[in-house]
Design brief:
Helix 1 packs across helix 9 and helix 15 crosses helix 16. Helix 16 links the parallel strand 17 and strand 18. The protein is of the alpha/beta class. The protein binds beta-L-fructofuranose. Beta-L-fructofuranose binds next to helix 10 and strand 14. Its EC number is 2.7.1.-. It is an enzyme of class 2 (transferase). This is Rhamnulokinase family protein.
């Protein structure tokens, strides 16, 4: 009994993966088939994504999986949020999609906000206004290149774009569109008011479909090239964060008031457990039945995005391991590379009481663009009147403690906003391999951390595909998730508890 075999193509801002998922005996297992780097490409002073190369890597992964395992049932692509490609009349890509860290937004953001102030954007869409959002980028691109109004026919967010290149079917999948700033707060339709006020053409938005929609088969030419047979392409929970949250094993004791599928709720929150999805970004939030649109939620930087199954995620984007990744990149460029493992060990061995540890605000704009991160940390410390961490161990430890502190602050804010106590925290994603970060999070929050799965986006991606194939009932997803992953529990150590 081979069960069902399928591929999750999980593209993050710093790396991509083609993962083989197998579903057998009510459990999902995943195996990495192909991993490749991803990142911004600088062209004429602007940052773009290299879509063609990413497609090539995806094709390589599909061919490798089929060569090793034979025919597969389906595949689905999930990616980071907000970025997009514009298609012309013939379905061709008009230009390489911009990277959300591209700096073309400063003045134009002010023009957008004059037409649609941030407070109104939040009420109309549930999204936290931010220059990285699709709505800001589209507004900027249509202003800068007037000809796009005539040539652009469809806007495809990144996972929709890859699923389109594979299947020939263009849709707007709900979970990824819930990051755009262009839909209503429930993410069920475009916000007519936002489009009207910003003079954005509604015709650019394809048909909205829920997570778990079968799009069709791999295009015949690609079947011939890669797998000599049919392969279904599915629009899954195609936002990586939605996939990651779909993989959370909420059934763990103490993470939910009464079992894995309890959605009776505690106030507006659906569970007593918060989540932190840890990667380049840290997404810290709670699942709620409805979007939370209060002024307080907006003022403290929260956003609302949609989950598989139509519930809401109230969450904050925290500039996460990007800080460490950019620091490591600077050291590697200076000829002194340090692996993730070495970085965590170095920071863990530090003699904490005598070390110089800075308190950083990870969301300070100084840290948001690519650059020499150790130098920026130094200027941040000087600006805020703090001593500058000197050794590599002190710099890494400052980053990790600052992340843990901002997770704790965010969880306290979530408790206040929803009136629901958070009992424990599920941490998922590649960042949880940094055990020190998990322990520091337990210490800073004073709550148990349940860490796992590491490959959260890939597992969530596969679970949602299984529902689309009719192999798993949507109501069973949490139970299958809980059976499929092992977790590690971190308890707050008394010495550090705040
Ligand atoms: C995480 C993520 C976040 C999104 C950010 C930018 O990978 O998808 O959810 O806000 O990337 O797109």
């Amino acid at each position: 009994n081979q069960g069902i075999r399928l591929l999750a193509i999980d593209l993050g801002a710093s790396s991509g993966r083609v993962m083989l998922g197998s579903y057998r005996d009510g459990k999902v297992t995943v195996e990495e088939i192909h991993r490749f780097p991803n990142g911004p490409v600088e062209v004429n002073g602007h940052l773009h994504w290299d879509v063609q190369r990413l497609l090539q890597e995806i094709k390589h992964g599909i061919a490798a999986a089929v060569a090793s395992y034979g025919p597969l049932h389906s595949l689905s692509v999930d990616t980071w949020g907000v970025d997009y490609g514009l298609l012309d009349e013939q379905g061709g890509l008009l230009y390489a999609p911009h990277h959300y860290r591209d700096q073309r937004m400063a003045d134009i953001a002010l023009a957008l906000e004059a037409a649609l102030p941030p407070a109104e954007q939040f009420k109309l869409t549930g999204n936290q206004p931010s220059p990285i959002n699709t709505v800001y980028q589209l507004f900027a691109d249509l202003k800068a290149k007037q000809e796009l109004r005539a040539t652009a026919r469809q806007l495809l967010l990144m996972p929709d774009l890859f699923n389109y290149m594979l299947s020939g079917v263009a849709v707007a999948e709900q979970t990824i569109w819930s990051t755009s700033g262009l839909l209503n707060p429930q993410s069920t339709a475009p916000s007519a008011e936002v489009l009207r006020r910003l003079e954005l053409p509604v015709t650019l938005i394809p048909r909205l479909v829920p997570a778990g929609t079968v799009l069709g088969e791999l295009r015949p030419a690609l079947q011939e090239e890669l797998c000599s047979g049919p392969l279904q392409i599915i629009a899954g929970a195609s936002h990586d964060t939605a996939s990651a949250v779909a993989s959370i094993p909420y059934g763990e004791p103490g993470s939910s008031s009464s079992g894995p599928d309890q959605t009776g709720g505690v106030g507006p929150a659906l569970r007593e457990a918060a989540f932190i999805s840890c990667g380049t970004w840290s997404l810290v939030g709670l699942e709620t039945a409805e979007p939370v649109l209060s002024d307080a939620a907006r003022a403290s930087g929260f956003t609302n995005e949609s989950c598989f199954g139509g519930t809401n995620r109230l969450l904050k984007n925290i500039t996460g391991l990007w800080l460490l990744q950019e620091t490591q990149r600077s050291w590697a460029e200076a000829g002194e590379p340090l692996s993730h493992q070495e970085a965590a060990e170095l920071a863990g061995q530090l003699d904490r009481p005598s070390a110089c540890i800075a308190e950083l605000d990870p969301n300070d704009p100084l840290f948001s663009t690519p650059g020499d991160m150790p130098l920026r940390i130094e200027s941040y410390c000087i600006r805020t009147g703090q001593p500058v961490p000197q050794t590599r161990a002190e710099i890494i430890r400052s980053i990790l403690e600052s992340l843990a502190r901002s997770y704790a602050d965010t969880i306290r804010e979530l408790e206040v906003l929803t009136g629901c106590p958070v009992r424990c925290i599920h941490m998922v994603g590649g960042g949880i391999q940094n055990k020190l970060l998990c322990q520091l999070t337990a210490d800073a929050t004073g709550k148990d951390v349940i860490a796992g799965p590491v490959e959260a986006s890939a597992i969530g991606n596969i679970l949602v595909q299984l529902t689309a194939l009719g192999a798993v009932d949507p109501a069973e997803v949490r139970r299958v998730a809980a059976r499929s992953c092992s977790t590690l529990r971190y308890q707050p150590s008394l010495t550090h508890q705040s």
